[in-house]
Specification:
lipopolysaccharide transport protein A fold, mainly beta, 67% strand, 510 residues, two-stranded antiparallel sheet, 3 domains
Length: 510
Amino acid sequence: MILKKHLLNYALLLSAFFLSNTFSAQEVLKLLPGSKKAHYFEENDLLKLAGDVNFEYQENIMFCDSAYYFEDAQIVRAYGNVHIIKETLNIFCDSAYFNGIEDKSKLWGRVKMRDGDYKLTTDSIDYDSKSGRATYRCFGSIQKMNSNERITSKVGYFYPDTKDYHFVDSVRYQNDNLRMETDTLRFNYATKKSYFFGKTFITKDSIDIESNFGWYHTKNNQGYLHGDAMLKDPKKILYADTIFYNDSLQKIEAKQNVHFSEKEKKLRIQSNYLLKDESTDETFVSDCVIAEVIQEEDTIYIHSDTLEILPDSLDGKKKIFAYYGVKIFNEQIQAKADSLVFVELKDIMTLYKSPIVWSENAELKGDSIQIHLKDSVIEHIDIYNNASALMELDSGIIYNQISGKTIIAMMEKGKLVQTDVFGSATSIYYPENEESTDSLLTIKRMGLNKLEAATLTVHLDSGEVKGITYRTQPTGIFYPIDQVVEKDKWIKNFSWNPYLRPRDLAELDN
């Protein structure tokens, strides 16, 4: 009777502590064949079982070669080929320790835990039945059976009931096409979602990902990356504070301090928001946008509030649409407008709504302006409706001026060399005369010359009028310099806007 009593207490302790939460004294325990030897040592309050120890309780079973049970201390020690079964959970180890009072246990020696398709292997495990948490601290690995999915780490915490796992220090995750390295990882096998903390490196096929923390769904290939986030593949590279990645929808979203580049498209972008749809090859960018359109000889910098990039042809050519507060900086020209369209296939950039283009000392304005490029060099600038070209000769005092319905401004090496003016063409300029006294050469303005015709071609050099060609007889008048009155000095709606001109890259977002 004493032996049976202790056998019953022993089995109840194992079940209550490791396999279930609470049991009542009335629940039935079945002692399976085994336990070839049983000894009770009253002086030590010790029950010793040996030889194929085997219990069954509510479909929970434990096997071992030998076991020691201290009734008052509620401590059990199991040795040799320990095997514990709880529903779908199987545990194997060399030895085990159970403390019924503290509801804690320890397994060590070739520890393996199998739960359905997954297997955990480590050197030792501590288990707290109150929290339902098992812990290993000397390297372990979890692997899906019959697959390459595997997680290894130095320290691991896992909850068999919820299939929630926490890994710390030297964490590695891998499956058939994904690799992940991080310092801290929380992974749920049921949802296939991993949360990482600390610098993390992910490789998926040809994609490299870096982040300080975030989450990644290993089944759907979706990710949230935050803190020095990076996403890179052979065609593009993206940096941002935050990146949302959805491989199934082929969408990438980035926020704050966004830096994006596509080498083949010769494009770099800075902004605070970017949305890339890789299924359509469309890109939407907003909030303090600076786009770099890389040309063979030069780079065009475009600033705007919003930018859209759309595919325009099968050979990778693109269309760029920029909206609100557009500014352009280039070594050849600078510009501003409300909106812009750049058609790479035609090498034409069109500015809309009160556009202004500056080149050296010239300011070009109209209702709309087209900039034509050839081999990355600006070839000519077409100005439509209310067109004007102003050249500053003496700051705030003297300006050569050209106006008409349409102006074609020809460029050479970034310099304005000729304007073809169509429709109500007007030219106001100050001819210069060179006077020399001894070794001193002086440039003197002789007066103001005003010409009007249906069309005019004005030849320029650094803003100076070197000649005028007209196809119809012009009307004109010359005013000696001392007879020029204020109203004759300006074309209609004259305005000079140097404060709007972006002089360098730093002024683009001001």
